[in-house]
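The pair is quoted verbatim below.
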Amino acid sequence: QVQLTESGGGLVQAGDSLRLSCVASGGIFSAYSMGWFRQAPGKDREFVAAISEKSVRSYYDNSVLGRFTISRDNANDTLYLQMDSLKAEDTAVYYCAAKHLFLSIRAPAEYLFWGQGTQVTVSS
C-alpha cells in the first residue's frame, strides 16, 4: 500500500508559476509509474502528465505541453509538477497517482493509489 501526499497548491495570477510535490510512503516509489491528474468543479478527472519509473519516459496532455514539467526524485520518494505560464483554465484540484508499468497512462482507472489532492486556483 502506497500513501501519496500532495502539496504546493495555492492561489496565483495568470502567468505565474507553481510547483506541486507528491511525497510517497509505505511502498517502493521507484517501482511505480506516476501521474498527475486534475479535476475542475463539475468536470471529470483528467490526465495532465505521467512519468515512467526511472524518468526515461514522460508524456503530457496537449493542454499543458510546453508549460508543465513532470519530474521525480526516487531517492526522496517525491514526484513534482512544475507549472509555468498558468492560465485560468488550469484551476482545479490536482492529484498524484501511482500505477505499475508505463501503459494506459491517461486512464484514471488504471492507477492503483491516489493522493488527497491539492487546490490550484489561477485568477485571470
Remarks:
- The chain has a mean pLDDT of 97.
- The CA atoms of residues 26 and 56 lie 24 Å apart.
